[in-house]
Specification:
Elements lengths: L9 H4 L3 H8 L3 E6 L2 E14 L26 E6 L3 E8 L6 E12 L1 H9 L6 H4 L6 H7 L16 E4 L9 E4 L13 E4 L9
Antiparallel strand pairs: 1-2, 1-6, 2-5, 2-8, 3-4, 4-5, 7-8
Helix pairs in contact: 3-5
The protein binds a DNA duplex (13 and 13 nucleotides) through strand 3, strand 4 and helix 5.
Length: 202
DNA sequence: CCACGGATTGGCT
DNA sequence: GCCAATCCGTGGA
């Protein structure tokens, strides 16, 4: 049985958030829009855990906005921020854990022409823009056209899912503090693939 | 009920 | 490098 290119199962997601975060690196996120298929290789993630992490949206308990994070892993948590941007998270852990992995950057693989349209509403002007397509949490949601419509999407379904791919070796994973937060800033819960040009920031 | 500020981005200095 | 744009969820009154 070929393990590569198989859709990840529920049991992948229901584990500890830090393990899932690191193992998501290198995996392929896929979104189907009718006959169109968008996909990208996950290059950068951050873990959030409401039980000990003040920066997590679940730190103060369940609300209408974060309730999907309190369910079992394997669903999409999408939120809207700064009046402009959507961010896309993979819910992890057992029911009640309040944990998720923020997808911060992907490397575009298929449907790149559609991503360019979604992001810029026009053709690429130059080669440099290629690396600006999906190199940030808000950017990749725009490129993949992920909005609140996709809140709670079951990742074992056919709309949005993740394909298996060999694990990235530990020595190729860079660990650092998370970006853009004020609380719990010292937790080393950001992980990215070394040397990947789509990572949002060094 | 209302004021605050955010898991960002891009444009301007 | 710095800062404004731009909503709405959240929490304190």
């Amino acid at each position: 049985m070929k393990k590569s290119n198989q859709k990840l199962k529920k049991s992948f997601y229901t584990r500890n958030v830090l393990i899932v975060a690191k193992e998501l690196l290198g995996k392929i996120i896929v979104k189907r829009d009718g006959s169109k298929i968008l996909s990208g290789r996950i290059a950068e993630v951050e873990a959030y855990d409401g039980s000990i992490d003040q920066a997590a949206h679940t730190f103060r308990g369940k609300t209408e906005r974060n309730k999907i994070m309190f369910g079992a892993g394997g669903f999409l948590y999408v939120y809207f921020t700064y009046g402009n941007h959507y961010c896309c998270n993979i819910v992890t852990g057992e029911e009640g854990s309040g944990t998720a992995v923020l997808i911060r950057a992907v490397e575009p693989l298929t449907g790149i022409d559609i991503m360019i349209k979604n992001r810029f509403g026009r053709d690429l002007l130059n080669e440099k823009e290629k690396f600006n397509l999906t190199s940030g949490p808000g950017k990749l949601c725009r490129a993949f056209a992920i909005t609140m419509d996709h809140y709670g999407t079951d990742l074992t379904g056919d709309d949005i899912y993740i394909l298996n791919s060999p694990k990235i070796k530990p020595e190729e994973i860079v660990v650092s503090r998370r970006i853009g937060i004020i609380k719990s800033v010292d937790l080393p819960w950001r992980f990215y693939i070394e040397e990947n040009p789509y990572v949002s920031k060094k």
